[in-house]
Amino acid sequence: xxxxxxxxxxxxVGDFWEALDExxxxxxxxxxIILIDENTRRQxxxxxxxxxxxxxxxxxxxxxxxxxxxxxxxxxxxxxxxENQIGRNxxxxxxxxxxxxxxxxxxxxxxxxGINFIQIPTTLLSQVDASIGGKLGIDxxxxxxxxxxxxxxxxxxxxxxxxxxxxxxxxxxxFAEMIKHALIADVAVWEELKKIEELGxxxxxxxxxxxxxxxxxxxxxxxxxxxxRKKLNFGHTIGHAIESLALEIKHTLxxxxxxxxxxxxxxxxxxxxxxxxxxxxxxxxxCILKIYGKVEIEESSFSNLLTLxxxxxxNEGTGINFTLLSxxxxxxxxxxxxxxxxxxxxxxxxxx
Length: 352
Ligand SMILES: NC(=O)c1ccc[n+]([C@@H]2O[C@H](COP(=O)([O-])OP(=O)(O)OC[C@H]3O[C@@H](n4cnc5c(N)ncnc54)[C@H](O)[C@@H]3O)[C@@H](O)[C@H]2O)c1
Ligand SMILES: [Zn+2]
Prior knowledge:
Elements: E1 2-5, E2 10-13, H1 17-27, E3 31-37, H2 38-43, H3 45-51, E4 58-62, H4 71-83, E5 90-96, H5 98-110, E6 116-121, H6 124-130, E7 135-140, E8 143-150, E9 155-158, H7 168-185, H8 187-193, H9 204-221, H10 236-248, H11 255-273, H12 278-292, H13 302-311, E10 320-327, E11 330-337, H14 339-350
Parallel strand pairs: 2-9, 3-4, 3-5, 5-6
Antiparallel strand pairs: 1-2, 7-8, 10-11
This protein binds nicotinamide-adenine-dinucleotide and zinc ion.
């Protein structure tokens, strides 16, 4: 097992069970809540309970999926916490993907002005990205993650064995965040990732550790996203708008699939505004297309997408603010692009 230390908490990566047992013994929480969805109840909870002796834990189960990352689900969580007389000295264990982590952390941090929580991410996406960095929240008013807060967990426990039951499509979704981490910060990792043909054959552990270290470095330098943390938003300004729109029309598009499309569009913007070479743009587009195919976007949805982008909480003032690449492995924050240019980037993607 490897321990990555952040300023506030430790990330245990690998065979963490003994460390988790010890953590729970030392902290002596009055009650433990385990937040799960129907998939992590089936696939992850039995593993958890076979390793950690736990009596009287309160299980709260919510329906899986991004469409449930909302205030209604929070209400059912808070209600069950009240019914189970959860006090301030309780611990919430978020056992699941990014939806469980973001929403469970949000519910824990606001319940009775905040109880402790830990993250046990069980998807690739949450293991390489969502479980660290302290961003918690839910989708509200058409805008992804528009209500939430920054608050760190007490600890994060990551074991890539959980990925054995994760559907292929979910693995692919998480891979998009890995591509993002490589493109914004490390050309050597990008060179490695772009050659990957078969996602089923990867030893994830080393990649997970790279992403965690890279994100930790960026977040610690700028925890509240005043500047360089915006690098992590590469692919997300357009990607989030595509994801929100898909949610509205009940078209199932996973977070990483939308981000992959966003990465292509924002790479095109990088060529126009940040000197990314055409060869790199083509290489990035080819890699994404090979793995994800194409998300269908209609011309008629452009204005809707622009409205969503302008509503993005990372935007201030006029124009739309992007993180762009000057080359693979190097990113620049705060590039304002005009709406026309953004539309052109969507057209580039559609015509691939
Ligand atoms: N807080 C952050 O910094 C941050 C960063 C990136 C993404 N996110 C958020 O993360 C969310 C996406 O996370 P996600 O991709 O993990 O989605 P998710 O939580 O919806 O999980 C994906 C699916 O996999 C299932 N699942 C989870 N673990 C499993 C396992 N081990 N075996 C089988 N099935 C399993 C879930 O039930 C769900 O159906 C988005 O809401 C996104 O906004 C947050
Ligand atoms: Zn993301």
